[in-house]
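Worked Example 4.2. Read the sequence first, then its structure tokens.
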Amino acid sequence: SACLRPLDNWSEISRPPLTSIPIRSLVSASADAGIAAAAATADLFGIAKSKRLLEMKLLRFKTVDGEVPVASSTVWLAPKHGKIAEVIENDGRTVVELMRVHFGHRVARIRQRISARSLDEQTARHLMRPAAEASLVIERHYFEQDQPFVFLRTLSICRGDLTQVEADFLASSYTGQPP
């Protein structure tokens, strides 16, 4: 079975629990050489705007007491990391773990932005919620040590009624200067 499918055609994969809650994911990836990088995303990856990126769509389900969709995510990678799209369907690890195993990328820093927004029609349908319902948007940019450009960008739209965000800040690393 091919792992690359049209973006609106989701295929099921099984994953072991990533937390104490069992999670199941659906995935699709753009089947061509990628999508044209938008200016802001090209800048994040340190690539020319004419270059292409691989875009994957993930739909996460909580599988305790029935199956409930909890998040719709989009993942952007450089085309050289296309192997991730080939193996993610049959591998229980996260995209970040697969990037480490297959390409040696080690996360040294994550820039995270959390905001609220209303669900659009398509995302609401995937999450089995009414359109315009409140959701939590979590965008993450993953960096390696001493690298100015990201190697991975994710954008997750999470159900507001099932999402909790926890942060642990380490004061000893604070320099008082912006990053």
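Now turn to a second chain, presented in exactly the same format:
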Amino acid sequence: KMGSGAVVKEVRVEHFDPADTRIELKMRLENNAPVGLGVDSLSYVLRIGDTVVVRSTYPGHLDIPAYGTAGIELPVTVHTERLVGTLKTLESRGLDSVTYSMDAGFRMPPFWKHRPMQVHIAKYLPLVHIPKMRLQHLSLEHFGMTKSRLMIDLAVENPNVFSMDFKETSVHMRIAKDEV
């Protein structure tokens, strides 16, 4: 089978705050051609529905062996208000699924060094709903002049039709502009 493709293996939210959300996309790139591919200058656009939520570049070089695969981790920073607004707009339209797409452009030296290759990947999948967090209990376990300890019990409600894993979760609190 001639051609190549890409598969998203994992989407990991590294940091979620009101300004910017940092996400890591783990992908597997497949090369079904009899020649290895070297990729430079990868730029990509991610869309949810018709809305562009990310436009970025990957600075590294990728080598994909002939008839082989290579993994890539794309660091993505998305403007949280645009992401949340897009998801809420689609939800308010009563949609339960939407097209998630990625358009990528890259150069492959030495043969196609000056002419970028274009790839379009699209999947129609369930609409992602942002999990809701509810404070169940808050208690002050220790109060000191330099350090204090709070015990926070949060309930996380996953409204999605798929499971989500929460690992290494941390909560940062601010009073005014100071992190506490």
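Notes for the reader: Residues 80-92 form the longest helix (13 residues). The chain is about 5% helix and 60% strand.
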